[in-house]
Deoxyguanosinetriphosphate triphosphohydrolase-like protein (Microvirga makkahensis), 402 residues
Amino acid sequence: MRPFGERWRAPYACDPQATRGRLYPTPVSPTRSEFQRDRDRIIHSSAFRRLKHKTQVFVYHEGDHFRTRLTHTIEVSQIARALARSLGLDEDLAEALALSHDLGHTPFGHTGEDTLEECMAGFGGFDHNAQALRIVTRLERRYPDYDGLNLTWETLEGLVKHNGPLLDAQGRPTLRYAERGVPLAIMEYDAVQDLELATFASGEAQAAAIADDIAYDAHDIDDGLRAGLFGVDDLREVPLLDEILAEIDGRWPGLELSRRIHELVRRVITRFVEDVVAEGERRIAALAPESADDIRRAGETALCFSREMREADASIKRFLYARMYRHPEVMRVRAQADQVLRDLFRRFKHEPRLMPEEWQADLPKDDEPRLARRVADYIAGMTDRYAILEHRRLFDVTPDLR
């Protein structure tokens, strides 16, 4: 008999009964697998709850119908589970990784990350993946015996490496970290628990990563249309979207706008999911992996888009970059958000006593890098709303971000 809650999984899936364990040994649960426990710890974390009031592109008060980090995370989780189920991977690990992938994001979307990266130049920089690792290994303080969530090795590995290896075979930073190096927080933790930074992540982590891409494409189209940044027919310059719109209009001529948009978004998700499953099956069959480590050491991702859909994904992103992410109204609000966070960083760095008491604890004098990191940790954890309120508390004039 399988243990409680166990499902069938392929030989190359991560097995919760064969986990490489936790940094701090914990008794086995009689009702949940190790990956289910990770998922639950993530969901019950303070950082996860704060995703409700952190935005993707628009700020929190723009409207109730736009995505937040939380709603985006739920959509990524749904897609990641669907991919894992279709390919025989562990659904619970894929879900845990999808739920945790945005924990390290700042208020005000990518603007916040860019701002903190510049503010932290000279102090180790800022990277949202590294910040997510700090959250789940240090900053969450819930358990009496240790800081962090004490997640399994497989979840930590996937959290850090879901976009690919961080080091090459010679131990040099891979392309995305070639200029600035692998973030210090990751290297420090890797010295404590080896995450094998030169290998790919598990199939479950790859499912979460590509689910993130799919969700972004679909919901940014939806949010951009709702915000009036572009119209449905503007999307026809993207070949895949033009093809899908032709299908919809051919079957339901004169369909009301809201239903037309929904049908477009759901078909975009379906096309990408079905493509990843087909391409994943093809690559896995060629690789013939017999273990999760075979996926990690394959030398390339096993779960990805086909060549045709890679171009479709790139075309959608090019459209959204020009028509949404760089739209004058979005750029105006981004500039205001940048000002809010720069002001907060400078003020807290010069007057750390203005932070809550728990953020001042054990902060030694004359240690500027550590002080800067503490301030970055505090600001990165803020919601959009709290950042605005803190700015209003400390400054006479605060941008309205509208």
Observations:
- The longest helix spans residues 257-287.
- The two ends are 58 Å apart (CA to CA).
- DSSP finds 17 helices and no strands in the chain.
- The mean pLDDT is 93.
